[in-house]
Amino acid sequence: MDQSANTLTPAAAWQPLPAADWNEAAARHLLQRIGFSATPAELARVLADGPVKSVERYFARMPALPKPRQIANLETEGPEIYRNMASGNPEARRMAQQDARERSREALFDLTIKWLQLASRPENSPAEKWLLFLSDVWVVGVEKVKNAALIYQHQDYIRKFALGSAPNLAKLMSRSPAMVVYLDLQQSKPEAPNENFARELFELFTLGEGNYTENDIKQAARAFTGYRQRQGEFQFVQRQHDNGRKTVLGRSGNFTGDDVIGLVFQQKAAGTFLPKQMVSFYLSEDSLPAEQTDALGAWWAGEGHDLRKLAVKFFTSRVFFAPGYRDGYIKSPIQFYLGLVQDLGLSVAPLPRQLIGSLRSMGQMPFDPPNVRGWVGGRSWINSATLSARRQLIQALLTPLNEDALNGDEQIEIAAAYADGISNFTLDQARLAEWAKLPPTDRARELVKRYVPDLVGTELERQVATFLERSAQHSQAAAATRAALATLLESPNYQLC
Amino acid sequence: MKNPAHLLPSTRREFLHYGARGIGLLAFSRFAPGFLVESAYAQAPAPEKDRSILVLVQLAGGNDGLNTVVPFADPNYRRLRPTLGLPEKDLLKLNNALALNAGCAAMHGLFQDGKLSIVQNVGYPNPNRSHFRSTEIWETGSDSNEFLPTGWLGRFFDNACSGTPKGGDPCGVNISNEVPQSFLSEHQHPTFSLAAGRNRRQQSENLALLEQMVQTPAGHDDHDNAGYLRHTMMDALVTEKKFQKVLANYQTKAAYPGTPFGGSLRNVAALIAAGTATRVYYVSLGGFDTHNNQLNTHAGLLKQLSEGLAAFQADLEAKKLDGQVLTMTFSEFGRRPSENESRGTDHGTAAPLFVMGSRLKPGVHGTAPKLDVARNQDLQYTTDFRAVYSTVLDQWLGCKSSAILGQNYKPLGFV
Question: I want to staple A126 with a disulfide (CB 3.0 to 4.6 A). Which of A15, A58, A134, B265 is the partner?
């Protein structure tokens, strides 16, 4: 890859993309990588605005996700559920636990749908993908946390500082009730400090392996003793806190948890860690040369580890736009789904069973990462079963919804959406009919240009045209168009961005 | 399109034939399907074809057990079902206490021929009434309060399908809208999804086009990920193409009903008849969430089920494959014994399930639910669904069930 960004000097690497290199392909790269797809409207706007103005617009502020109704209900009913769970009668306790799980699950579905709906709006996509990225660093999983209200709160906490100071985000994360449960701070006390949080803080959240010692973990764990949560509220319990002297990362003192996080961000590794994570989440499975990430890390530390500044710098840089990093990135299931929604002009259907089932089959159920490392991504997304799930999703989105096959509660949800004037859950058949009127070669060009533009003018476009020509005689033009579109979306090219 | 482009060999035989003629598919072996490369080198023997096969039929939505296998002689039945209770004269008697819904005529025939078993009142402790969760419990084989990341059939694949399966055939094939959770496994196994119903020509043309696309590097071609995707997709396409051929050429005299469910079972029969090494098939029939005016809807669904199953069984018998196949139904829950105000039924708990095949112990197994329940009270299960799974695993699939289910269950003796 002689076009690779590896040859850029550390100083040049993070400079803004020269205006001469800004074009439609670069704009498409920007939109697909920072968001979920490049819709024609956003593409035109971004192309006109240029990268800096566009990225600044997308990262001006985080969109708000109003508390989903079921999450609010879960919080309201929380105290009573907790009371029942603590009651003396074992049978009542069991029932209450089951009840709590059930409500949490319903609430999680509500949250998932609402989040996907928010993220599916093109103007929100870059910020929501950034949120997904940060959630994939500061991982919690609903499987262990068990309470969807805490999952919502955790995401809300990230939202608060997603474009602010990384050290402040880290401090808030250590106080997130979901995190307190997820990494066992709840049980951590002076006589038995639990090292789980301290270890992941260093290894997976802020520094990376090799930048701390086992002893740093042991000592830091003492600083985080006394962190508790009760019904979704953080509490610092002084008498459960080890107030003694600790030595962490080469410094000694009667450190608190916040002190430890302060020390972490004095490390050089804290400047480079998140940029490296950004590379693997947004750019490439291969890491950048150390000189390049070192340069960015040093600059970022000088900017007080400000997350917005980092995002703008990164997403407008020469490295980010280097031709060697274009087009070869495998879409995650969430991106694949939301990208399809945007590309096909759809709304997220309020059907958790189908939607979550599909995301799970593709390997990425939101809020339920496999472990504290988060999703591995890249090629691990692709195997015969997940490919099959991707193809099934495409078929489902291109075929009118079969309402008879829905459950009663799903029919109610769909009816409510119709009442709100939202019905575009699958491809508009009228659009298909419009396309079908075009002569086959024009139709092939239109479909290819819209959905896999890098194939325009290639042998593949001709194959699509031939396919459409053959079916034209059978007065089956709309069905053939649907089949051609499905094929383009199933093709390897559409799995990449 | 009479002659779709044959860009890839669809069988090993074809492939070896190509190889012998020196066409040299191995020349692009970096992107050639894994099994092709492997078997060309190893001249691997043909897959075993005489192993037992399980066909799982999901009745999605929660099937009303009481109006499927009807305890007509129990006065409580009439009390609980004042408008939905089925008149005795319309029922198909199994014995002096139980009868099948009139929609189940074909299954009644199978029962009389000793090819259908009924396992009564199947459920699990602390039942969950959410479609999603209860389906998950059934599919993962978990306790009600336990969350398992893998499905019971996925764990069977983990135990029984080590390494690349012979012939490149998938371990499991699902004919449903999404990959069933039952198939989720710890290790990677090829599984395959077919669209429901008979596959029309359009779909095979779509396939031929996709195959061309996978074969024609373009666009992002200089990236390894593109090659990786092509390679994995080709693997899947070889299977799909082979399957499409099998489905398109399948000859049968069996009278499959013209429903999508009938078409799906016909496709399963076609794949089995073709000697596919797959041991588990999963077919879904939806619409059982009958909250209102259920009488006709429910009877219609049972008729679809019944006629589909009977045609499938007759087809297998005609091909002398019936001894190899066991078919079993399941549903996430039964429905409330008391009917609701809308002449329907709400989510309930235990329900009967059906097992069909030529090599089973026919009859009614397990004990009937006690119907002396108060209004809106639920049935108490008497057979754990995992006892059904363990019987299938141990007695039919020949796989130690404790490894899959985490504990031993008493076999139920239907096979």
Answer: A58
Strand pairing partners for A229?
A234
Q: How far apart are the C-alpha atoms of B316 and B266, rounded to whole Å? A: 10
Q: Which residue has the tokens 């450190």?
A: A255
Q: Tell me which of A10-24, B133-147, B188-202 is least confident.
A: B188-202
Q: Which residues contact A388 (CB under 8 A, 6 or more apart)?
A: B179, B191, B192, B193, B236
Tokens of A251: 């410094």
| A164 exposure class (CB count in 10 Å sphere: 0-12, 13-18, 19+) | middle
User: Is the per-residue pLDDT at A266 higher than 80?
Assistant: yes
Interval B262-308: pLDDT, tens: 999 999 999 999 999 999 999 999 889 888 889 999 999 999 999 99
Q: What does the DSSP 8-state code read for residue A285?
A: S
ipTM score: 0.86
pLDDT tens profile A195-219: 999 999 999 999 998 999 999 999 9
Of the residues A393, A407, A452, A496, the best mutation for testing chain B's interface (the one with the most B CB atoms within 10 Å of its CB) is A407
Q: Give the amino acid at B218.
A: A
How far apart are alpha carbons A429 and A431 in whole angstroms?
5
Residue B19 has pLDDT above 60, yes or no: no
Contact B229 A330 (CB under 8 A): yes
Count, residues in chain A: 497
Q: What angle do CA A361, A367, A372 make, to 5 degrees?
A: 100
Q: pTM for this one?
A: 0.78
Closest CA to A389 of A414, A424, A365: A365
User: What's the confidence (pLDDT) of residue A102?
Assistant: 86
Q: What is the token pair recorded at A146?
A: 């068990």
pLDDT at residue B311 greater than cutoff 70: yes
The Cα of A112 is separated from the nearest Cα of chain B by a number of Å equal to: 15
- What is the per-residue pLDDT across A313-338, written as a single tens digit (0 to 9) for each? 999 999 999 998 998 899 999 999 99
Of the candidates B173, B193, B182, the residue with the CA atom closest to the CA atom of residue B138 = B182
Q: Is residue B248 part of a domain?
A: no
- The nearest CA of chain B is from the CA of A455 a distance in Å of 6
- Give the structural domain span for B162: 51-200+253-405
Average pLDDT value for residue range A402-411 = 86
Q: Which residues of A touch B239 (CB under 8 A)?
A: 384
Number of domains within chain B: 1
Model confidence at A87: pLDDT above 90? no
Judged by average pLDDT, the poorest of B3-12, B21-30, B64-73 is B21-30
Contacts of A328 in chain B (CB under 8 A): 220, 222-226
Asked if the structure places residue B376 within a domain, the reply is yes
Count of helix runs (H) and strand runs (E) in chain B: 12, 12
Residue B123, φ and ψ in degrees, nearest 5: -170, -150
Query: Bridge-partner residues for B335, per DSSP?
Result: B347
Is residue B182 assigned to a domain? yes
Contact between chains at A460 and B220 (C-beta distance less than 8 A)? no
Measured distance CA(B108)–CA(B100) in Å, rounded: 7
* B1 inside 8 A of chain A by CB: yes
The long-range contacts involving A480-484, CB below 8 angstroms and separated by at least 24 positions, are A480/A436, A480/B202, A480/B205, A481/A432, A481/A435, A481/A436, A481/A443, A481/A447, A482/A398, A482/A427, A482/A432, A483/B202, A483/B203, A483/B205, A483/B206, A483/B209, A484/A443, A484/A444, A484/A447, A484/B206, A484/B209
CATH number at residue B377: 3.40.720
The pLDDT of B247-274, averaged and rounded, is: 94
Location of structure tokens 């008391």? B338
